[in-house]
Amino acid sequence: MERQRISSGTEWETEVGYSRAVRVDDTVHVSGTTATEDGAVVAEGDPYRQTKQAIANIADALDETGAGLDDVVRTRIYAVDIDDWDEIGRAHGEAFSDARPAATMVQVERLIDPEMLVEIEAEARVMG
């Protein structure tokens, strides 16, 4: 069993002790991912655009493992305001319209940065 670790290079990964993504055999686990670019939160106040950015960040991590969004079989979505479900869901649906993974969306009290509105975990299975 080979373990491939993907790092985004943030100081949090070594400080907290986690990887952006981990691939073991044909399974890829992507850590909770937010709408950041170059270390800064993007699209403040916009749950749709934050979800799009979080998914783009997930796609980047998957790509480094040889997987893609079409390989995703499970997502977990953490929203700070469940009333944003439709905007978050629309962005999720656009990205995963073909894969249609099992998905859960729950409201959480807050995320690490108060500007963050959504965080997404993903699991992918690479077939073939």
TrEMBL record:
Species the sequence originates in: Halovenus salina
Parts of the chain that traverse the membrane: none
InterPro entries: RutC-like_sf (IPR035959), YjgF/YER057c/UK114 (IPR006175)
Protein name stated in the entry: RidA family protein
